Fold:
Amino acid sequence: MGTSVRRTPGWAKAVAALVLVLAVLFAGIRLAVLPGIKDLFGTETHDRSGPALLRSIQDMSRYDAASGNFQVVVDLDKDAKFLPDAIRGTRTLYVGAGTVDAYVDLGQVGEKDVTVNGDRTSATIRLPHAALGRPALDPDHSYAVSKQRGLLDRLGDLFSDNPNSEQAVQKVAVRHIGGAARSSGLTARAESNTTAMLQGLLRSLGFKEVHVTYGTRAA
Structure:
């Protein structure tokens, strides 16, 4: 008797081919011949968040005297030591836009920091130096120009809660914006604006001379 060869059923071949195609697609290979594939496997976002709760209220005593707008182009390259970039590695080109405020903390001014003459025509005020607030990234004007990823990184994105996360480049952008603010002369502008504000306010109250200084009070 001859030995019969068992053939694979046609349906099994079709299932195997479908699994192979899906594996290729989810590996990150974009096939231009399949327009609309992202819509087919895409997700919808529904905001089911609860209402925001007020946890605390804090009185503010600082005078925001100046604000700077900054923009930085971040080129962040992350490589693997022993693998080529096509296999493992990312490179992101990101434009970050943000603001930094400069303020004078009026809450630090004590009674000894304010001197008024007898006829209330002259006043001298000593204030702390202006300080910089935290950089605030503007999401409406910050965006990724391009993002290159290795094959393993694209596979990892399939199992990530947020595959499009740009947290790393955003942190770098904030750091650069903060550095630019420190060397921009923004605090000097804030002190000048604060001086002008106080002089205008006190002169409207009848003071003819208003002197404003900055720095630690002498012992």
